[in-house]
Design brief:
Layout: E1 3-10, H1 16-29, E2 35-43, E3 46-50, E4 56-60, E5 65-68, E6 71-73, E7 77-80, H2 91-99, H3 108-115, H4 117-124, E8 130-132, E9 135-138, H5 143-152, E10 157-161, E11 171-173, H6 179-187, E12 193-197, E13 201-211, E14 214-217, E15 221-225, H7 232-236, E16 241-244, H8 251-267, E17 273-281, E18 287-293, H9 303-310, H10 315-324
Parallel strand pairs: 1-2, 1-7, 8-18
Antiparallel strand pairs: 2-3, 3-4, 4-5, 5-6, 9-12, 10-11, 10-12, 13-14, 13-15, 13-17, 15-16, 17-18
C-alpha cells in the first residue's frame, strides 16, 4: 500500500509564487511507485486540492483530509514546500502537531524562531568559529530608530525584513541619504526590520539534512552574482548568478564550515533539509552567518538540488529520504 502524501504549497506572502514553482518540481520528481501525491494549495481562507482537470476539493481542517468523488482521503504525512507564512514560520507545523500529522520540515518552535533573523543570530552567536555581523533589530519605523542606525552602525548596510525570505524588501545602503527609503521598503514587508553592517566576503549557501537518523552536510554552493548582492532577481532568474557546486574552498575551510553548520543545525533543533547562507570574509576567511532557510527552494535553479547531485545522489532518492524520516 502506497503512502498518501500531501504536497503543501501556496502561502500568504509574496513567496507563494516560488512555493508553486518548487511544488511543481517536487511533484514531478517524487517517487510515484512509493507514494500517492496530492498537491494541497493553502491561501488565506482557501485550502484545497486541485485535480488535473482543474476541479477544486476543499480541505477539511478538522483532520486535513479531502473528499474526492465521494471518497475521503486522509494523509500519512506532509511534504511541506510552502515558503514564508504559514509554512515556514511554525503556524502550519503547530496545526499539524495538534492533529498528529507528521511533516518533513522543522517543528513549530524551531520554525518560528528561525523565521526571525535577529532571534536566530542571537541563538547561534556563541557557536565556536561562527561570527555574525553587527546589527540592529528594529520594531518601528521611527525617526528615533533611523537615528540609532546612523549613530550605532557603519555604512554600507544591508536592510531586510526580519521575517521575510527570497530577498523581498531587501536593500543595500551606502549613504545616509538612501537609508530612509530602504527602511520604508523593508517595513512595508514586515513589522520588524534587521539592519546589518556589510561583510565583504565570498558568499556561499550550504544544505544539511537528516535521514535514517544520520545528519549529512552537503557540498556548499558558491554564489557569484552579476548583481551587487544576491537579490530576488539573482536568486530566481537564470543566468544572473553563477553558482559553483562544490564552492571554491580549501580543505581547512570545508572542514570548518561543516563543523559550524552541523552545530547550528543541532543547536536550532532542525529537522529535515535546511539551507544556511554564509560569507567567508575576504581579509580573514572568518565564517559569517547570514541566515537559515528551513523550507529551502526546490525550483529548477535551486541550490539544494545541485548539492544533492554533487554527492552522486538522485533528487528523487533525496525526497524519499526526507519523507521516510517522518515515520
Amino acid at each position: 500500500m502506497k503512502k498518501k502524501i500531501a504536497l503543501v504549497t501556496g502561502g500568504f506572502t509574496g513567496e507563494s509564487v516560488i512555493s508553486i514553482k518548487s511544488a511543481t518540481v517536487v511533484e514531478k520528481t517524487i517517487d510515484r511507485d512509493k507514494y500517492d501525491v496530492f498537491k494541497i494549495l493553502i491561501y488565506p481562507g482557501d485550502w484545497y486540492h486541485e485535480s488535473p482537470s482543474g476541479e477544486k476539493y476543499p480541505v477539511d481542517l478538522n483532520d486535513f483530509s479531502i473528499q474526492v468523488e465521494g471518497q475521503k482521503i486522509s494523509f500519512d504525512g506532509v511534504f511541506n514546500i510552502l515558503h514564508g507564512s504559514p509554512g515556514e514560520d511554525g503556524k502550519l507545523a503547530g496545526y499539524f502537531d495538534m492533529i498528529g500529522l507528521p511533516y518533513t520540515t522543522c517543528d513549530a518552535m524551531t520554525s518560528a524562531i528561525t523565521m526571525n533573523k535577529g532571534y536566530t543570530k542571537a541563538i547561534v552567536d556563541d557557536i565556536p568559529e561562527l561570527n555574525v555581523a553587527k546589527s540592529l533589530q528594529l520594531f518601528a519605523n521611527s525617526p528615533a530608530n533611523t537615528q540609532r542606525v546612523k549613530d550605532e552602525l557603519s555604512m554600507p548596510l544591508f536592510i531586510k525584513p526580519n521575517n521575510g525570505g527570497s530577498s523581498i524588501g531587501m536593500s543595500k545602503v551606502k549613504t545616509e541619504e538612501e537609508l530612509q527609503e530602504a527602511l520604508d521598503k523593508a517595513f512595508a514587508e514586515d513589522k520588524q526590520v534587521l539592519v546589518e553592517e556589510f561583510v565583504s566576503g565570498r558568499e556561499f549557501s550550504i544544505g544539511i539534512y537528516t535521514a535514517k537518523g544520520v545528519t549529512t552536510v552537503l557540498p556548499a554552493t558558491e554564489i557569484v552574482s552579476s548583481k551587487e548582492y544576491f537579490d530576488f532577481e539573482a536568486k530566481y532568474t537564470a543566468g544572473v548568478t553563477e553558482e559553483i557546486t562544490p564552492g571554491r574552498m580549501n580543505e581547512e575551510e570545508v572542514e570548518r564550515v561543516r563543523r559550524i553548520v552541523a552545530k547550528a543545525y543541532e543547536k536550532l533543533n532542525c529537522k529535515g533539509a535546511v539551507r544556511i547562507d554564509y560569507f567567508l570574509e575576504h581579509e580573514t576567511g572568518k565564517f559569517f552567518f547570514i541566515e537559515i532557510n528551513t523550507v529551502p527552494g526546490q525550483t529548477e535553479t535551486s541550490l539544494i538540488s545541485q548539492q544533492v547531485r554533487a554527492i552522486g545522489k538522485e533528487v528523487k532518492e533525496f525526497y524519499t529520504e526526507l519523507i521516510e524520516e517522518m515515520f
